[in-house]
Amino acid sequence: MTVSGGAHSRGMTNTEALRLDEVRKVHGADGNQVVALAGVTLSLPAGTFTAVMGPSGSGKSTLLQCAAGLERPTGGRVFVAGHEMKGDETELTKFRREHIGFVFQHFNLLPALTVLQNVTLPLRLAGRRVDEARAAEVLRAVGLGDRLSHRPQELSGGQQQRVAIARALVASPSVIFADEPTGALDTRSARAVLALLQQAVRTYGQTLVMVTHDPVAAAHADSVLFLADGRLVGRMIDPTAEAVAERLTHLGDELVRKGA
Ligand SMILES: Nc1ncnc2c1ncn2[C@@H]1O[C@H](COP(=O)(O)OP(=O)(O)OP(=O)(O)O)[C@@H](O)[C@H]1O
Q1: In this protein, which residues make up the domain named ABC transporter (predicted)?
Q2: For every one of its 260 residues, what pLDDT tens digit does the chain have, with 9 covering 90 and above?
């Protein structure tokens, strides 16, 4: 299946933020190979929020890693904001620093740095001008304006994840990739983080791709892509948690019937 996002329903521009052309990823050596991605083609417009779902082992993390330039595909091509992601490790690192933001399940904040320093670190690493006033403004927007000089361990899990979101937003990347961003949070903090991610897309026009196992989290996205056996097998626009859960159950049934 090929997925192509149309003009966005809220009237956003249809600039392409992410494109994958027949992306394949094979892990392991000859004789012991696992096909994690079996040729994925998709196009996501800028300013959209996309969730990626599928059974365990269906290739979600691999898709995210390849799309974000953290893993090299075995075949196919990845374009971010019209630029093909290619080159040696140094070029890829530079490309990621300029174009890609990350939000991880376990926040990945540096414990020795303050909240403000954590948020400005990607700009420093990229050799970009550090505008502390803007960083503080983004931290205020995520509800942490009074925590700038705190260390991550002085914050709750939900607050730490909001710092990580501010860190991703401050660099204005072409795409933010979030891997199970609410996986380590209680329900209430998860809801706040999801609302914030949604706001980043709706208010700032950020493009966001989120891997999740949770239909409630996926329902915050504009559309959900379903993966099975390393292939895109479906797409749902304007998802509800119930509809996503039902689609996932049927996906599981289909795989059981096929003997996967
Ligand atoms: N480094 C690796 N070496 C070998 N096989 C791998 C490697 N990484 C992933 N795989 C395999 O590739 C397939 C896809 O894995 P991936 O982690 O992308 O799935 P996933 O959908 O994210 O799973 P989960 O929901 O359990 O996190 C699986 O069969 C997995 O075992």
Answers
A1: 18-254
A2: 555 544 344 444 569 999 999 999 999 888 889 999 999 999 999 999 999 999 999 999 999 999 999 999 999 999 999 999 999 999 999 999 999 999 999 999 999 999 999 999 999 988 999 999 999 999 998 999 999 999 999 999 999 999 999 999 999 999 999 999 999 889 988 999 899 999 999 988 999 999 999 999 999 999 999 999 999 999 999 999 999 999 999 886 766 666 65
- The token pair at 96 is 């990621």
Spans of all domains in the chain: 46-69+88-257
Write the single-letter amino acid at 99. Answer: H
Contact criterion met (CB below 8 Å) for 70 and 144:
no
**Cα separation of 183 and 202, whole Å?**
23
83 in contact with ligand 1, CB cutoff 6 A: no
Query: Strands 100-103 and 83-84: what pairing?
Result: unpaired
In the CATH hierarchy, which fold is given to the domain comprising 46-69+88-257?
Rossmann fold (3.40.50)
Q: Which residue has the tokens 């091509």?
A: 77
Q: What is the pTM of this model?
A: 0.90
Give yes or no for a contact between 208 and 12, defined as CB atoms under 8 angstroms apart. Answer: no
Report the complex ipTM: 0.97
The response to whether residue 25 sits with its C-beta less than 6 Å from ligand 1 reads no
Cα of 52 to ligand 1 centre, how many Å?
14
| Amino acid letter, 67 | A
Distance in Å, CA 257 to ligand 1 centroid = 21
- Distance, CA 189 to ligand 1 centroid (Å)? 28
